[in-house]
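Work Package 3 (structural annotation) set out to generate three-dimensional models for the target panel prioritized at the project kickoff. During this period the team completed the workflow that converts sequence records into discrete structure tokens, so that structures can be stored uniformly alongside our sequence database. As a representative example, we reproduce one entry of 486 residues exactly as it appears in the project archive.
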Amino acid sequence: MSLWTSLEPASTTVDPGGSTTVRLRLRNTGDVVEEYRFEAVGSLAPWAVVEPRSLRLYPGTTGTVDLTFAPPRTSEAAAGPHPYAVRITPTEHPEATTVPEGNLTITPFTEVRAELVPPTVKGRLRGHPKLAVDNLGNTRVTASLSGSDNGDQLSYDIHPSNVQIEPGRAAFVKTTLKPRQIIWFGSAEHRPYTLTVQRSGVTPLDVEGTYVQRGFLPRWLAVFLSVFMALAIAFVMLWITYKPEVRSVATERLQEAGAGTLPPPALSPAPEAPKAPSAGVAAPPAATETQQAGGAGDGAGEGDGAGAEGGGSEEKETKAPERTAAIAVQQLAAQDPSGRHICYRVYAAGQGWTDAVCDGETAGTAGAGTPLKAVNIAVSGTKLTSGAPSVHNPASTDGKGHRPAPWTDAADGIDNYIGSTEEDAPDMLGFTVSVDRGAGTVCQSAYVHKDAWLSLACDEPGTGYEFTYVGTQDNDSWIEAVKLTV
């Protein structure tokens, strides 16, 4: 039993989102009729189609099979060469399996999306938006960031100002907006601005936002103070101009009549001494012993008895406090003050909050199909935790979710809530989480609906990846369980 095979061409190139076909020629060099089954193997197998799946050849005859490769235009189709193979299994002699090999090169493409979270910020002295830059291409992206506005009304502090983003990953850039002039009185003013993602040889990507600068004092208060001061000054001037003269007419009349003509004051008669009671008048009765002790005491005694009886019938049951992630991490920190810990729990649809777990344990129910709505996280030994959700977007046109809520921060030992527990809250596709730069590293894995546990991923402090994304960005999926460590 023998078989001759040839791949034409042995090496080829394909663009993501396109397709290419490789022809496999084979000849039955044996002396019996044989049927061959074909199967693509290797990392490109999910994107390969073999047609036909089986072929029957007589001795000395030749046949052809087409292999069509169609990698998707996503970050999963990594740029570069990819080896592949075709397993050929004879039906009559399965032990004589043949595996011809070839090479397929996927061309690189870049696709960058940027989003401001939130698009509108408010403040008196500064604003703190965050710019999320997603690399949807299949090759690493290097970009610089800058800010601008009409009239140079704002200054920009962007950190980091340069990012390197691997395929399928996102970088989150913190931006501080500072107005160059302070509004002391008056209504808020809207100041549009633009953050630019600049890549070499590519048209810059502009993301527009609005900074609403508020005044320190409202306009009506300035008008009120001005009117009040004007009235006060007018009153003082009128008082000084028309100050009334006050004179005593009685004193003037007395001086005219002369003090010596006044008669001396009459002496008042001495008061009479009280008369002693006569013998025929009875004295008032002496107070009884009960009255001397105080009638109010009897009333108080009756009141105490009533209070004691009522207290026995209105005993209230004490309810244990809810064990949040902060309570769980505080207990761990008390046992291990010098270590780093992270505790967390999830809010499942129709079930409410789960029990808090810590340091790599599973929160949620993997495989039950129950979507998560919110996550409660607390840390110790990492200074702070920060995060933002990504949820289902019913208006999505690109199959991706969106980030509707701003970032939330919490110090060590304090609860940080990401997402919403409202009844109509959207399902959570994933969330971004980080700790203080230089104080620790967050590692995570999530169970995605109709999929499996994702590979363990960690952030990379000091390289622009100070954040890690838990879950997926697919608008038709959601996460059911998570594991976190620091």
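Residues 86 and 188 are 67 Å apart (CA to CA).
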